[in-house]
Structure formats: structure tokens, C-alpha cells
Amino acid sequence: MTLTETTVPTTREAGKRAPRRRRRPWSVRRIATFVLLVVMTLLWVYPFIWLVSASLKQSSEIFGSGLTLIPETFRWENYVRAWTEAGFAQYFLNTVIITVGAIVIVVVRSALAGYVLGRYSFPGKKILIGIFLVTFFLPEGYTIIPITQLTDQLGLLNTHAGVILGLGAGGHIAATLLYAGFFRGLPKELEESAKLDGAGAFRTFFQVMLPLSWPITATVVILTFLAAWNAYLLPLVFTLSNPDLQTLAIGMTSFVDDYGQDWSGMAAGAVISLVPVVIVFVILQKKFVDSIAGAVKQ
Q: Which domains does the chain have, with CATH numbers?
């Protein structure tokens, strides 16, 4: 038997000899924390469960059944009524078109602006960032009038393009600063290598820098998606003369008339509008968490 055979154990033997990690015993503090988290989760999730339950009940049963979540009869026709009679099919299509257009504009514009702020130094840069931060706190209601007048002068009121520009061309300061912070932390060697390969500024940005910012892009997509999907005031003002262009948020008012409210139909419409939000977040949640973790580390 050689020296190597006697002194170096095989991988299987080393795995067998490795001590197993013992689980920590459940202390009183750990149990209390677990119970508290479960209670908080139930309180957070319960409104959504109640909404799904209400969408499958009669309007009279919603408030007469108390805290009971299981309907007496599952009324799937509430979703059919919301999709067809209330016009949610058209509202859904309008919302998808407007949201996708706004996301494309915000991502491209914020990434370009963030790249300049993060990688270049120029006179007045700090003043410009200060102006960005000031405009970040302006409420939407204060800017709706000039935006509407400008859109009207461009002849884009009561059009999808007008709503897309209104939502996408606003001051998305948070997205710009997210990109700026990310690009600031990238090594300069990336740009130098691209320059040696003959790439210009735009080619370097779109083929090298932007693909690396996928975690930040996922975050911006989620935030923009939520803002555009749930937008109410601007789409309402921009489509007053053309109800066929209204979005899901505005379409919820179709369940309210002079004789009362269709609560079960409204709940079904709300569930329909929430499903895409959940799907988008599930798809992009990992990148979203990675970007937040990266921001904390920086």
C-alpha cells in the first residue's frame, strides 16, 4: 500500500466521516418569531383571498356571509360578465398596449440617462441630480395640466400613443438613479476593451453595459409595470372623449351606476387585473431581489 493510499481518504470516505450539521433546537424566541411571521403573513394575504372569494359569490352574499371565505355556490359567471358585458376584454388589451409601450420608453431612456450620470463627469452634474431629486417629490396632479396641453398640441389626445408618452416620458427619477448607481460600480476595463474592439459609445452601451444591468432592468420593469398598469388619473384625462381606449383601472367604474354597485362583478374584474401583476412579479422576482441585495451591498 502506497503512502498516498494510506494518508489521503477517498471522496466517499471523507463524505461519510464529515459530521452532520445539527439543527438548532426550537427555542422560545424562535417559536415566537415563527408564530408572529405566520400571523403577519395571514393578515397580509387575507385581503387577496377575500377578494377571490368575493368574486365567486353573489353581491348580497359578500357582506351577508361575514368572514366565510367559501361561497355557497361558485359563480364563475361573474368573470364572464366582467370580461364581456363590462368590456374588460377591451380594457385589458388597452392596458397591455399602454403598459408595454411605457416600459420600453422608461427602460431605454432611464438606462441612457443613468449611464451618462454614472460613467461621465461634466459641469453641473450635481445640480442636475439635485433637480431630479426635487422633481421626484412632485405629485402627479400638479403636472397633469401641462402634460395634457402638450399632448393636445401634438394631436395625441385620445390615442394609445398619447397615453404611452404621458406615462413613459414623465420624470422616472428612481429608475434613472438605479441605473446610475449600477453603472458607476462597473469596472472601466469593460469600456476600454470594447473601445479596442472598435465599438463606439452607443454600441458599447447596448451590447456591453445594458446586458450587464439585467437585475436593475428587471426592477425597473416591475416598478414601471405596476405604475402603468394601475395608472388612473392620466389615462382617464387622456381618454375622456374615447372610452374605447380606457384601461382596467378606469374600467372598474363600469360596475357602478345610479342604482348601486355590482360588487361581485367588481371583485371579478379586480382579480382579472391582478393576475398579470402576480405573473410578472413571479417571473422577475429573483432579479428584483438580486438588484435590491446589490444596492444594499453598495
A: 87-297 (1.10.3720.10)
